[in-house]
Design brief:
Elements: H1 3-25, H2 35-49, H3 54-77
């Protein structure tokens, strides 16, 4: 396994963990994605799609993960 595949696997795992955290913190009625979460999801998908160019792919994945963490923090802070 080369470094590129390892980073993709790590990014997808972090995204899955974030999704699980959102699911378990939202015990009540399921809500739709917030604007920040939807933007994060779009950046992560774009990072996977444009993964051929490592700089662009990693940058998009990183931005998506940072936005997802910011969304989680803002949701937890508002409670």
């Amino acid at each position: 396994m080369d470094t590129y595949q390892a980073y993709i696997i790590i990014s997808v795992l972090v995204f899955a963990i974030i999704a699980l955290l959102l699911y378990f913190t939202n015990r009540g009625k399921p809500k739709g994605l917030s604007k920040l979460a939807a933007l994060s999801f779009a950046f992560i998908i774009a990072g996977i799609v444009f993964g051929e160019d490592r700089r662009i792919g990693y940058t998009l994945l990183g931005v998506g993960i940072l936005l997802a963490v910011a969304d989680i923090y803002s949701r937890l802070a508002s409670k």
